[in-house]
Amino acid sequence: MKIAMVSEHVSPLADPGGGAGGQQVHVAALSAALVRRGHRVTVYTRRDDPHIRTEVATRDGYRVVHVPAGPPRPLGRDQTLPHLGEFGTFLRKHWAIDTPDLVHAHFWMSALAAELAARAHDIPVVVTFHALGTVKRRHHGLADTSPRSRIRFERLIATRAAHVLATSADEAVELVRMGVPRFRISVAPCGVDLTAFRPEGGMADRKARHRIFAAGRLVRRKGFDLAVRALPDLPDTELVIAGGAVGDDVDDDAESKRLRRIAVEHGVHERVRLLGQVSHSAMPRLYRSADVVLCTPWYEPFGFVPLEAMACRKPVVTTAVGGMLDTVVDGVTGKFVAPPEPEVVARAVRPLLEDATLRETWGAAGYQRASSRYSWDRVAAATLSAYRRAAPARASVVTDAGGSGRAIATAR
Ligand code: UDP
Question: Which domains does the chain have, with CATH numbers?
Answer without folding.
Answer: 2-191+375-411 (3.40.50.2000), 210-373 (3.40.50.2000)
